[in-house]
Amino acid sequence: MSRRTSRPRRPSSAGARTAPRTEITADSPCPCGLPAPYGACCGRLHAGAIAPTCEALMRSRYSAFAVRDSAYLLRTWHPATRPGVLDLDPGVRWERLEILGTTEGSAFHTTGTVTFRAHFTDDGRTDSLHEKSRFVRHEGAWVYESAVFAD
Hints:
By secondary structure, this protein is α+β, with helices and mostly antiparallel strands. The protein has 3 helices and 4 strands, in the order αααββββ.
């Protein structure tokens, strides 16, 4: 997932409204949608474990958007395509991830793709991001390389 802020930044003000954020703890349901608590699922990858498949990396990157972990997103982005800074929009709340398909991306592959739809609200407006992401192995670990937007 490569979402960056696409609209001008809103000036902050005392009266600005943003959706209240629910604190995600190790015992919270994982944002990626798998039936495991965050700490045993994507949280362990955010803490430094290596994703075994490109789908696992995709799910953990989605969860990183949900918990606003830009350091993890940058760390798991291929150095050739990684931006210098990742500006996460505070008005976006990631709601649900649907994995629509995968190709390759297992322990026996060096490349893989994940097609997904990520549902979100942006300052109260519902929307989704439909993308086919490409992952490659870099220094032994899966990293996000690029994407093609499907919609």
